[in-house]
């Protein structure tokens, strides 16, 4: 197994024998897959997300495996020798570091670490009452996830003003 950041070169030997009973040995190296980045860079539990793995030496038919039973993987596609896409399903227990492994059809592979944060949760559980005609401001607190957060109204409408 190669480690992230290594060159992923794997030696092998070829022996050639000619009719004149001469033999010789030549050595060569087959470059293995190498990962330079994964996008998006921040993943949170409780979601399904399409990821793009960028690197080099990806071969058609390469497999992507996740060494974490809480992360599902589907729709793996080797787009080019430098890009693989896949869909990860992250359940509520998938946070922390997990190894993803890419293995080319020739058996040469590499592993890299994918970090998943806990899904954001609203920690503010109640709001004080407001009064008509008086400005109202309240800070909401979030735990988990990765800042910056994006806020949106999921139902109803915000009051005028």
Description:
With 161 residues, the protein is mainly β. The chain has a domain at 9-17 and 32-117: Sandwich (Immunoglobulin-like). 0% of the residues lie in helices and 49% in strands. It has no helices and twelve strands. The protein has strands spanning 9-17, 23-31, 34-39, 43-44, 47-56, 63-66, 71-80, 83-90, 96-103, 109-117, 121-122, 142-143. A four-stranded antiparallel sheet has the order 3-5-8-7, with no helix packed on it. Strands 4-10-9-6 form a four-stranded mixed sheet, with no helix packed on it. Strands 1-2 form a two-stranded antiparallel ribbon. Strand 7 and strand 8 (83-90) form a beta hairpin. The termini are far apart.
Q: Compute the gyration radius: what is it?
A: 25 Å
For the termini, the CA-CA separation is 60 Å
The amount of beta strand, in percent, is: over 45%
Strands of the widest sheet, in order across it, are 3-5-8-7
The CATH topology of the domain at 9-17 and 32-117 is Immunoglobulin-like
Indicate the CATH class of the domain at 9-17 and 32-117. Mainly Beta
Kindly report the name of the CATH homologous superfamily of the domain at 9-17 and 32-117. Immunoglobulins
Which stretches are low in confidence, meaning pLDDT under 50 for 5 or more residues running?
Answer: 1-10
Find the count of extended strands (DSSP E, 2+ residues): 12
Please work out how many helical segments DSSP would assign: 0
